[in-house]
Amino acid sequence: MTNSTTQPVLELRDLFVSVMQPPQTDIVKGVSLVIRPGEIHALMGPNGSGKSTLASAIAGSPMYRVDSGQVLFKGEDVTKLPADERARRGMFLSFQYPTPIPGVTMVNMLRMALKARRGEEVPAREFLAELRTTLKTLKMDEEFARRYVNDGFSGGEKKRAEILQLGMLRPDLAILDETDSGLDVDALRTVAEGVNALRTSELGVLIITHYQRILNYITPDFVHILVNGRIVRSGDAQLARTIENEGYDPILRELGVLEGATA
User: Fold this and answer.
1) 143 Cβ partners below 8 Å, 6+ apart?
2) What would the pLDDT profile of 98-145 be if each residue is shown by its tens digit?
3) Is the sign of the CA dihedral 90, 94, 99, 102 positive or negative?
4) Burial 189-209 (b: 16+ CB within 10 A, else e)
5) Are the C-beta atoms of residues 209 and 177 closer than 8 Å to each other?
6) pLDDT (tens digit per residue) in 49-83
7) With left for phi above 0 and alpha for psi between -120 and 50, is residue 205 left, alpha or beta?
8) Quick check: 258 pLDDT over 70?
9) Where are the alpha helices (DSSP H) in the chain?
C-alpha cells in the first residue's frame, strides 16, 4: 500500500520502557516497529503484555521511562520530548478511558487544541466551517459538539468524541488504545466507520486491541503480537483472524510463556 522508501511516520528502535513509580518494573523489552504514512498497524496481545504501556510511551507519558532505544517521529528523535510537544508535532493518542471535563464544551476544547496544534488562533468562521465539515464526514449531529467533554457520555459517545478530535486535529500518527473497549456492536461499527472515513495516504495508524473484532471493520496492513513486552509475531490481517479462531494459547505454549505478563 505504501512505498518502502517513504520516510516512516513512526519508527521505534529497540525500545525498552519501565514504569516510573517503584518498583521500576521493565514492561516493554526491545520493541522495534516502523509505520509509514497510509499504513494501519494493529498491535494485539494477551492482557498485561505491555500494549497500553507502549502506546503511552510513544506519546510521551510521564508515567513511563524509556530506558534505552529511540522513538523517531517523521525522522526526528522525540524520545525525550514531553507529551505536549509530540502532540503539537502531529501525534494523537486516544485513551482507553477518556476523562470527563464538566463545564468545557467540545467546541471550546477543540478550538483550543487546534490552536495548540497549529501554533496560532484559528478564526471563528474558519474553525466552524472545519468543524461542520468534519461532523458531516463522521455523520455526527452538530449538537454533539455543544456538549461538555465526555460528561454524561456513554462509552460509545466517548470514543466518537475522540474520533471527532482526530478529524479536527489531522495528526500524522493516530494511536488508538483499545478504542473497542466496552463498545457494543453498533457503537463499534460507528467508531470504525469514523476511522475509515478519516483515513488518508498521509496518516499512519496504530490500533491497540486485545480482540480481533474491531479489525472486522478496519482492515490492518500489518498485525503484530506483543507478549511479555516483545513483538513475537508479525503478519497481515490473517494473523488477527488466526488469533480470533485459536486464541493466544498456541503462541504462548510455543514460546513457553504463561499468560499474565507484567502490566
Assistant:
1) none
2) 889 999 999 999 999 999 999 999 999 999 999 999 999 998 999 999
3) positive
4) ebbbebbeebeeeebbbbbbb
5) no
6) 999 999 999 999 999 999 999 999 999 999 999 99
7) beta
8) no
9) 51-59, 83-89, 106-118, 124-137, 155-169, 185-198, 237-246, 249-255
Round to whole Å and give the CA distance between 153 and 147: 9
C-alpha cell at 107: 467546541
| Distance, CA of 67 to CA of 229 (rounded, Å) | 13
Please name each of the domains of the chain with its CATH number.
Answer: 10-255 (3.40.50.300)
Task: Determine the length of the chain.
Answer: 263
Backbone phi, psi, residue 130, to 5°: -65, -40
Rg (CA), the chain: 18
pLDDT greater than 60 at residue 8: yes
Helix 106-118 vs helix 155-169: crossing angle, to nearest 10: 30
Count of C-beta atoms within a 10 Å radius of residue 65: 14
- Please identify which residue in the block is written with the cell numbers 500494549: 51
Give residues with Cβ within 8 angstroms of 73, minimum separation 6. 9, 10, 86, 89, 90, 91, 172, 173
Residue 256 burial (CB count, 10 A): 6
Compute the distance between CA of residue 3 and CA of residue 163 in angstroms, rounded to an integer. 27
Q: How far is the C-alpha of 187 from the C-alpha of 204, rounded, in Å?
A: 23
